[in-house]
Specification:
Layout: E1 6-9, E2 22-27, H1 31-41, E3 45-51, H2 54-60, E4 69-73, H3 81-89, E5 99-103, H4 108-117, E6 121-124, H5 132-143
Parallel strand pairs: 2-3, 2-4, 4-5, 5-6
Antiparallel strand pairs: 1-6
Helix pairs in contact: 1-5, 3-4
């Protein structure tokens, strides 16, 4: 079994069929994780930036240059991933942007709550470096056929 799992996802009606280097923002506070994600996601996506928290994300969300996908770590200081998801989905400017929550593990309650709140998916981050290529491919595969 893979050391990460795509735990639950909805049909992403916000995404399009031609998926070539979609613009993404990543909310992650661990510098090592950011480096690994940059290395492995860069082949699939245009990484518009990394934010360590919600305030940093807001600084990166520029009108006219909004991302087509936001990855949010569940475990963040001050505002966690669910709180950030709530803020994004209740803001008319950002509510249509698909949000994928990422974490080393999810409880069933957290998955259900995230999906109810409008998350497009909950994906476990790899426990080992060698699985990052599968992690990035799983994210890419999820948005294949979706609309932006």
């Amino acid at each position: 079994m893979d050391s990460f799992n795509v735990l639950k996802y909805t049909t992403m009606t916000q995404l399009t069929t031609s998926v070539i280097r979609k613009r993404i923002l990543i909310v992650e506070d661990d510098a090592d994780e950011c480096s690994l994600m940059r290395e492995h996601l860069d082949g699939h996506f245009e990484i518009a930036g990394f934010a360590p928290n919600y305030d940093g994300l807001l600084r990166l969300l520029q009108p006219g240059q909004l991302p087509q996908l936001i990855l949010v770590n569940l475990s963040l200081p001050r505002k966690n991933g669910l709180e950030i998801l709530h803020e994004l989905k209740h803001n008319k400017l950002y509510q249509e942007i698909p949000v994928i929550l990422i974490s080393v593990s999810f409880s069933e309650y957290t998955i259900n709550k995230a999906m109810e709140m409008g998350a497009s998916a909950c994906i476990e981050k790899p426990m080992v470096f060698s699985d990052y290529h599968r992690f990035s491919a799983a994210i890419y595969d999820l948005i294949q056929g979706a609309v932006i």
